[in-house]
Amino acid sequence: MTEIMERSALAPEIRTAGPRPLSEAARAALEAGTADNTRRGYSSDWAAFTVWCAATGERPLPATAETLVEYVTYLAATPSARTGRPLAPSSIRRALTSIRAAHRAAGVTPPEVIGARKVLSGHLDKLAKAKDPAARPRKAAPATPRELRAMLADVDRTTLKGKRDAALLLLGFATAARVSELSSLDVSSATETEHGYDVHVYRHKVREWTDAPVMYGTDPATCPVRALRAYLVALAEAGRTEGPLFVRIDRHGRVAPPMMRRGQIIGDPTGRMTGEAIGDLVATLADRCDLKGEWSGHSLRRGFATAAYAAGSDLLSIARAGGWGDGSRTLAGYVQTIDRVKNSPLIGIGL
Known about the structure:
It contains 15 helices and 5 strands. With 351 residues, it is mainly α. It is 52% helix and 7% strand. Mean pLDDT is 84; it is low at 1-20. Helix 6 (89-105) runs antiparallel to helix 7 (114-129) and helix 9 crosses helix 13. The N and C termini lie far apart (56 Å). The radius of gyration is 23 Å and the shape is globular. It has helices spanning 2-10, 12-15, 24-32, 36-56, 65-77, 89-105, 114-129, 145-152, 160-175, 179-183, 224-237, 275-288, 298-310, 315-322, 329-342, and strands spanning 190-193, 196-203, 208-215, 259-261, 264-266. The chain has a 3-stranded antiparallel sheet, covered by helices on one side.
């Protein structure tokens, strides 16, 4: 987002027409209010758009509606360097959002996207008729207790790394934490209580701190309280009693080992695991036990919502516990799989 705003503010045509560019302080404040993943995605999309504009002679800022029609047509037909396939419809939709966000950040009226969206709708229809999997949005598979047991069966919980992996899976599920929220937890975030632990989590989407109650489970193998306690004890024995809760641990049991790339030290010097690393861990454990579907760190959060709703919890309670906004459409989508069977109009009509 910073890159977007800097480019926008420096564009000569913007200085002489329309609202003045945002100040440096205002750009920094706007960036701070944007989620990290969103900011990275917007910056990547904007960079790709400006490269295409440079190659085709189009002007990226301010862009015209016709330019966006051409760009979406290009994205729908051109294989990307990373996958060898054209971007998925959801990725193209995000690119449009990113381009409009860049215009708003520069104080410029965003271009109309009616034509571009018509092109995208036609592309989606074409994929659906061809039964291309890309026509369906990719969703993280829910890690319910059944899947968690399968993942944990392959974890050596006698080691520090195994204790960390178990605690990460079960705490991520029990708090319904996003990977960024799970990554940001510190040792001091967990306070032991009579019911187990209270975990202090900052829910960045709703801008609220919550004390998520983590309670004892009936099965010791999937009890988040026992898993977290075992990990904290082992972490303290390794000399870590403060700082990040979930840290890098190599196969030799070393905490926060240095990471090098091209001779340079990379990674958080405290060893804090990134959200990407947490997602990779969930996907790896799911792959080891041959679980089908798309697996990521978000699987823990979706699994919590799915399991809680199936057990009879109402949507408002689930939303408040997991940091969703009241009436969240995302949360409603998670439980739709259960509702489509439980509340099917076919029930009781006499077939």
